[in-house]
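quick one before i forget lol
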Amino acid sequence: MAQKIVVDQEKCIGCGACASTCEGSFEMRDGKAFAVKADVEELTCEKEAESVCPVDAISVI
């Protein structure tokens, strides 16, 4: 079952912790984090990226 990765752009402060932790799934654009793919079949480091976000802008559901 696919997992959905959501980045709340209103909360994101652009620190880059998610992209550093899970560079294959997150990228920085215009000072904000974006999910490379909104849906992933198999989680690798996405949950870790969710946990390191200092403002809880990432949800893996």
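fyi The chain has two helices and five strands.
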